[in-house]
Amino acid sequence: MDYLEIANSPVMWVCCAPGVIIVLFEAIKFMRLSRKAGKDMGIDPEVITRGVRAAAISSIGPSLAIVIGMLALIVCIGAPFAWFRLSFVGSVMYELIAANFAAMGVGTELGAPDFGPLAFSAALWVMPLGALGWMIVGAALTHKLEFIRLKLAGGKIAFLPVLTSAAMLGVFAKMGSGELIAGGGRTIAFIIGLVCMIAFLRLADAINKTWIKEWSLGFSMLIGMFVAAAFF
Amino acid sequence: MEVENVYEKEFIPQVKKWGPLLLIIGMPLTFIPAIYVWWAYNIIPSGSQIMAGFGLTVAVLWAVYIVEPISYYPILGMPGVYMMCLAGNISNLRLPCAAVAQESAGVTFGTKEGSIIATLAMSVSMLVSTIIIFLGALGAAAVLNHLPPFVLHAFDYILPAIFGAIFGQFLIKGYLIGIIALALGLFFNYYKVLPDWAVLLVCVFGTILISRILWERGMLGKKSEN
After folding, report:
1. B213 vs A202: CA distance, rounded Å
2. What gap in Å lies between CA B32 and CA B137, rounded to an integer?
3. What are the structural domain ranges in chain A?
4. Does B20 contact chain A (CB < 8 Å)?
5. Shortest CB distance from A31 goes to which of B65, B123, B133?
6. CB–CB of A228 and B154 under 8 A?
7. In principle, which of A36, B84, B147, B198 could form an S-S bond with B151, CB 3.0–4.6 Å?
């Protein structure tokens, strides 16, 4: 029996469902908590609606990108486990690395012709094992991290928004500088995405249309990727 | 009730309860597929084979486990970090999503209102991405076979375009800090004197510290407002 028949069997979908259900449960739980807190804090319902709409729109493109990355996993570990892994801890990059290491542990490689039942089973063990690190650190440390934020702000509440923007710029400068150094289409996509986003946000403020902000990431992403693809 | 009280006395305690609880419940659940294949088909690698793969993974990632929650905490706050540790996909999906949601809602980053909207946005993105990835797992190959090659090629550039867009969104909030952050990133990504996880730390905390110095000297034009 081909191991992919096991990997794509209905029972496998059932086995992968509990992990995904935890993610969905947390999403709904935290959504309720933040909605209620928002209401009690007197945040305008219209503001909340705009945030939710923008989040939903902005999730579509990046999720499709995950689906593309998932294809490499599906052919090796089957659709249900790929779905579970990409909805759960980690990211496409992490899952590909861990799946490949799992395969190396049994003497093959991800996507190699001899990636068989044993390598599949190794992936089932190693991918969740490797992701435990985030879960353990998350469960043990997260509630202790607030002090870092307060320490960095030196007790100055007014600095917290600047701090958050600076941290965000730091993260995306790290990601972005990699794209700039990569050259070719990746550099072009980064620059076009950047320029489009600034243009859309400026335009939204100039003509006072918030819906443009809600679509800004989606549009900037599409223009960036297609312009880059047209030239490279 | 006051904003401060609702957030600190009602919202955060609930987050502190559910965040770790769901992570702990989630841990054993992730092994159900592995145990099923072992039990039903008797397929399982030897302990040393699993440890070989696990060892390689941990050797590459051990620092990332710690660096990511610490680096993303100043942006996401407590609820966001619990969610990222359970649902992953942080820089490619959750952060951009939370950023655009806060921009659209018109709330300030790093405030309590900002944190509420970011939590909401991350919840929404978890629902949307789980559904899209599910549909993708069911039929991705079939649909992709019908897309023109040009479109498939464009998908290679999704991530750089997203990174550029979000960098741009924050660049207009502070060009000076943005350029400093990018200079740090370019230097460490180009010369590779540090491992990748350390570059994330340097970029995030280096940028925060430099912006604090500039802010205290009133060079960011924000201090007087507050």
Report:
1. 28
2. 19
3. 3-143, 147-231
4. yes
5. B123
6. yes
7. B147
